[in-house]
Fold these 2 entries.
Entry 1:
Amino acid sequence: AYSEKVMDHFEHPRNVGEIENPSGVGTVGNAKCGDIMRIYLDIDDNQVIQDVKFKTFGCGAAVATSSMATELVKGKTVEEALGVTNKAVMEALDGLPPVKVHCSLLAEEAIHAALWDYAEKH
Amino acid sequence: AYSEKVMDHFEHPRNVGEIENPSGVGTVGNAKCGDIMRIYLDIDDNQVIQDVKFKTFGCGAAVATSSMATELVKGKTVEEALGVTNKAVMEALDGLPPVKVHCSLLAEEAIHAALWDYAEKH
Ligand code: FES
């Protein structure tokens, strides 16, 4: 039911962890399942995302989309990162079953929350 | 929101993996969130569970309850293992938030399915 890319990012998630003194942090909850996602961003003076880490209690779909989303925003500017949609992340994963689409939204929402947190501080 | 024991079993899950040529396998799905759980049992001639492994795409609550449930049934007889309830697993974890109780049922159902699979073969 899951694509090879989803299984790869689920079994070997990229960028799991925390960043000390991050430029921005975003924490969001999933009302449908009660799961939580947190994303940490390290952004340099040129507004380039140098590092990004995530932690989640969510399911495999949440882990895989967050892993892919962090890969897609790393090295991008803040403005470019705002343009990385959930649709782009799901396409990069070769899709997700419809029942898991709500899980994939956690990553996009947490990245936006972390970018917002950064913007408020700068 | 989660107990220390839940976080410990989520971050360091016990008995993750597969068993080759298992005595019994149980696979169950969670209709509410679309997640899947599979449990493998290795049972000896005295009907004692020598080894147990699990795999899941489920969330942290599913991982933690499966980890604890496999610890509780390991070394037990088939009959004793049938008596390990979801309630006992949750108590051993110092509880779960109400919204995550349905996730914890995956482990109990998968163990019962694996014991049933074993019974059918013997
Ligand atoms: S079921 Fe909660 S994040 Fe997928």
Entry 2:
Amino acid sequence: MALKGILRSGLIQLRVLDLEESVDFYHDRIGLTKVGKLGNDRFMLKGYDEFDHHSVVLREADSPGIDFMCFKALDEETVKDVIAKNEKFGYERYEVTDQPGFGTIQMFKIANGHTIGVYSEVELAEQKPMTCNPKIWDKEPHGMEANLFDHALLAGPNQGECVNWFVEVMGMAITEVLYTEDKNGYICTWLSSNTRGHDVALLNFPDAGKLHHFSFQLSGWNDIGRAADIMARYNIKIDAGPMRHGVTRGQTIYFFDPSGNRVETYAGGYEYFPDAPLREWSADRAGEGIFYYTKELNERFLTVLT
Amino acid sequence: MALKGILRSGLIQLRVLDLEESVDFYHDRIGLTKVGKLGNDRFMLKGYDEFDHHSVVLREADSPGIDFMCFKALDEETVKDVIAKNEKFGYERYEVTDQPGFGTIQMFKIANGHTIGVYSEVELAEQKPMTCNPKIWDKEPHGMEANLFDHALLAGPNQGECVNWFVEVMGMAITEVLYTEDKNGYICTWLSSNTRGHDVALLNFPDAGKLHHFSFQLSGWNDIGRAADIMARYNIKIDAGPMRHGVTRGQTIYFFDPSGNRVETYAGGYEYFPDAPLREWSADRAGEGIFYYTKELNERFLTVLT
Amino acid sequence: MALKGILRSGLIQLRVLDLEESVDFYHDRIGLTKVGKLGNDRFMLKGYDEFDHHSVVLREADSPGIDFMCFKALDEETVKDVIAKNEKFGYERYEVTDQPGFGTIQMFKIANGHTIGVYSEVELAEQKPMTCNPKIWDKEPHGMEANLFDHALLAGPNQGECVNWFVEVMGMAITEVLYTEDKNGYICTWLSSNTRGHDVALLNFPDAGKLHHFSFQLSGWNDIGRAADIMARYNIKIDAGPMRHGVTRGQTIYFFDPSGNRVETYAGGYEYFPDAPLREWSADRAGEGIFYYTKELNERFLTVLT
Amino acid sequence: MALKGILRSGLIQLRVLDLEESVDFYHDRIGLTKVGKLGNDRFMLKGYDEFDHHSVVLREADSPGIDFMCFKALDEETVKDVIAKNEKFGYERYEVTDQPGFGTIQMFKIANGHTIGVYSEVELAEQKPMTCNPKIWDKEPHGMEANLFDHALLAGPNQGECVNWFVEVMGMAITEVLYTEDKNGYICTWLSSNTRGHDVALLNFPDAGKLHHFSFQLSGWNDIGRAADIMARYNIKIDAGPMRHGVTRGQTIYFFDPSGNRVETYAGGYEYFPDAPLREWSADRAGEGIFYYTKELNERFLTVLT
């Protein structure tokens, strides 16, 4: 198998202020499939084009934000390898076994205040892509027609160390970097475990464990436009877009869920291979890297995180 | 690195009847970049979005068809591993060193009459994607705006053995299969070394070393339409499409180059991961697998190969 | 007002074999809005982006086909003018008053065996585009997202005389013609009352009163692709497409409703103005005029009418 | 003919600071066709999909802005009618005969400080759409692939009187209005002579004869995205977009030419008919009417005119 080790980002647990309202939002507007309740305060959802049991968990809480983000490994050997390689970093590890359909998830508390999980065992979902004489979809996609949970941008301190952890422990590749003005460090780093431009990105930020945004994959620019029409119709607050990123070339809209979490609908982007040269951005071109068309970051984009 | 071993299809050498006319066709219409002449009878080209020195070589010959198709490996270790694992199959191997910009290519004569190469060393092209504060392209794409050489469908006998070679020696994954009517074998098999639905497909066919088609990646359905407009304008013979495949979900047009080689412009398709279940097609649904909309294969599609 | 007289095709009554199944088809798949029953054997529908009470009536009958097609006039003065100018042609006229929401429709039995109506009075529909701080749609479009009833291709004898009637009586413009081989007549003529490439086309055909196809407007090529995906999923029989017409430049799919009526989803096409030169097609290029990409008409297209 | 009188906006003369640089910009980037020099200080261009001799004239001057905007009439009878009906308004009229390929243009100095022309006679361009077995285009479109000059938004005082002039003298229809806060007047009015959402819009503004923007038609949302990619590549200053308007539903980007004139690439929008109800916007929803997605006007949009 040419694709080994860590395969992709596969699970995210979000904090939302009102569970029922949020489930409706992610189902009706984003177009996720409802998988079911998880205890009293959580709800599982998934993209219609994902095979695995679920990929998004919403948890009702007093403040928005992210609980954890997890990566699917090809096999348990990979999981063991991650555990072993984490020794060098000494990040606290614990096991989570309460995600229905999932085997044990190994959780690591990394130095930017985020919790990153790794698992290899997960059941197939009831609603999943057809595989026997398959139609491209079984039930018509709805809402923004999000295919799948794609990536997240995690903010916090100690970014350099965390980048090293993703590279050395998780075996991921740095695809693009945004240098600080003195070029001695990175403002932001994009990392991939497959051919996506990124599965996760790490933003240098003083507060630990902050979520800048997480992202759903759409099928193309036309679906980005359709998503914007849906946002406009239902008065969903758009932060920026429709536009393109210079970084990853992805086409995008940033908007806010009812709890204030920044969500992205994302499409396109190049096909990454590990023999590609690193793409590098200088600090004075940060605006262009993120907001490729207008070349200007808005203040809200830099300061509002959950 | 999570993506290891064989990375992708990276080089194809085609036979064409008139070199000059063919270079114009692949440059002006398909939108490839001219890299330069190679001896008296060959010409090198590449997609505007490829980093490597070149990906397509046209060779003037008395009959159309394919000389060989090669795969890029991450490193020389992979190449050595392929050589070692080929021992079990005992396929003839020889070395090619005449492709400018490329290190040694290990060529294997596999049992369907095709020559498959593996290499890890290749220089970056002069015209390649930007990497320092990169624009999404440097020079405006032209013609059909082919991004890159994507895959080929190789026809010949002994398909099952060749599939095993791609799986065991090259480490590739079977993504989809089309069973024979008795379900004891495959009419066609699709194989991937990365997250594409396929890098190469193998079609059972009595004549050895035959090319059914080879394919260029476009950016989406809208570019498929644009490509069709260009074909119509310049009276390029369309075999089928615009349409979608059931297999891989790719959006597509099949057409013929001036020498009669079947070429495809291809876009979309799902993102494959090795933990996805195998997609299976029964013989009675072959039409739908290939021609997803009309569900009927045309006679030409089944019989015209080069 | 610069747009006067006959404004557009506005109403069509179709014969279908099973009313309930057909209502489901036009609602669920084409995406029309249900307006309501009309007596025991008819059902009214409309496109989500139409203001008028309804635009499509399905009537249960023993054989498929078209009952009549009607045009909206700006005012009653236009209707009177049509009645007066019809005198020269002497086509039988009668009044229809049983279409809910519509004033009197003046029906004319023209020489190709078709019944063409004209009306100016029609109530606004309950479900219609918003007009006060309007969203681009109120309720999300569904299915193939047909905006509106666009045009029909009516087949029958005496085409030349009927063309004259549309020009002289209805004040419509000939936008394109397909000449017979001897160039003494037309195989097909396209006529417009506004800036569309056509509101109606007339095909020379031995049998009177035959429907070749009628058409719904989609928003673009991407929606043509989405419509094709829906057709594939629900095994709706596609006649041809996705493709483009040379005539009108429209992007299109022809398919069949459950009764065997040929339906078209149509998008794009140029903006016609009456100062544009006539577009002319010679008989030997008919294939390209209709099937712009493949340049070949299929047999079914030429022989299957209802 | 159902489409009579004034047909469409057909000619605009712009002031630019550097003629050569501007010709390159409108040719290379917007994708217009060069028609030729006009005297020492002017240059004629056209959209590739326009039949008429030219539609855009650039004039080198000390300050940017608009000289005049002209409308094509179906016939000289319409021109005479406009002259006659202008008597009631008493706007100064003069004749222009120096536009190559055009007959006499009747120019009217209307009360918002703008000059509006009317003409019916114009020669066909050398480069124009094919009409004999036509391809959808003859020479491949380039750059942003602007089809045609579409409309302009003219700013100045006495808006209400000017609206009346366009309605009573030119016979145009008001398609949408944006009311002032007290609902006693209009901030902006959109007017159409055909089925476009607008050919011209009038903005209430203290300074006379000001140009807010003028607009080129693109073929759809995908071309809007492509245009944005071109703007990004060549560092063309984007004012707003890609986005959609609530008014007209058009998909759009506003950007600046090298002289500071605001230009728009515009696609889509509904098909207007004179029997459609007026679309009305209240002052508190102006942001949504113009910037449908973000619902917020930027300061520059309200204050920068030429």
